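Q: How would the structure tokens look for this protein?
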Amino acid sequence: MTPPTPPTPRTASTPPTPSPSPLPDFRELHHQKLPLVLPNAWDIASALAFAGAGFAAVGTTSFGVASGLGRPDGGRSTREASLALARALAPLPVHVSVDIEDGYADDPDEVAAYVAALTAEGVVGVNIEDSTAETLIDPAAHAAKVAAVKRRCPEVFVNARADTYWLGQDATVRATLERAARYVEAGADGVFVPGATDPAVLRELTSAVPVPLNVLAIPGRSPAELAEWGVRRVSTGSLPYRAALHAAVAVAEAVRGGGDVPAATPYPDLQARPADHASRSGHPRG
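A: Here is the predicted structure in token form.
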């Protein structure tokens, strides 16, 4: 019987197998020269695509998740789907932040328990809005949710969303800052003001809010411009999801009409991504 070949000994000339370098700390990504651009995924494939494009962090979009289920956004219909998506994205070599609508509950402790379940899956951040059923809630109630989450999960980055401009309710700088102040006092690590686009408004908000300010992407405004106004994070929201649907229809119409088919990611690349995703489960996160 032939004895097994012994393993080749490592020598000084044999380089060690490189291990993946840790990602930058998620909080540090909010304090760079340019704002953190956070693309929002709605499923595994979109998150893999963003990770493959080199984004260090990926968020989720409750609108995209809800729409994929055939349901409207904001009705607390994405609770289980968002948790399942977080679980599926855990092996990705990126930070994951989850949009949890209004926390899916009125009880702050229930919201905190849900966030704890997310952090158990490796989620580093959550986005939680201060409106329910398209109506602003009492800022004290939202602050209580933020405080409960930070007590239960002090390590998670809580991005407290103020929906004043988004809903057109109390859409003034003063009212928005009053809400933001309560959320920061409760422990919010960031404040998100979707719908605010005016440079003067953004400058007032960023100068008064002591934590990173997050806005939705503003057409025609570069990250460099937003940085000049003090913005520290830019979310794509549901835009990529809506653009993907638009592109899908354009492809079908091009085939039907015999026109030029728009460019698409090669089939082999997408076929390889799930296996690549599974193989990265040990990637260290900062």
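Confidence is low (pLDDT under 50) at residues 4-19.

Residues 194 and 215 are 5 Å apart (CA to CA).

Upvote if useful.
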